[in-house]
Amino acid sequence: MRLVVISDIHGSSKYTKKAIEVFNREQGDYLLILGDILYHGPRNPLPEEYDPKEVAKILNEYRYKIIAVRGNCDSEVDQMLLDFPCMGDYSVVLYDNKRFFLTHGHIYNENNMPNISTEDIMLHGHTHVLGINKKDGISIINPGSISYPKENNPHSYGVVDGDVFYIKTLEGTIIQEIVLN
Questions:
Q1: Quick check: 181 pLDDT over 80?
Q2: pTM for the full model?
């Protein structure tokens, strides 16, 4: 089973289409979305091809393949357009004897760790900055932003393939990787 992980779409139909292209190219079984799906947020400029209704339409076609959590820019009105649940502050995915704790990053992050064990992996977005870190034995992975990267990072996403988590550019070039415990 392959998991494709994206974060911080912020209503960009252009990058939602690219995310679906990536999902299909990677032959993903599930698409994990780490929040900030439809709205750009008042602190951010409008992303390329800002069209939240189109984003909802595209993602709803994959509703049975999506596991999503709420970002700080997501609200109840967004859930009204989406045919998959996205209002939980976190979700847990069991994969090949590993537990992934999915969250956006505005509540749980390196500075406010959830109560998870050292064998677990925390996936979060929010900062728009990709990275793989460890804290107290817990792997902390941010796939970066699919549509609005910051700090000179490329548009990026993550893939879980067996025991390895890859962060890749939209073209599929590996940026970082970690072997999961």
A1: no
A2: 0.97
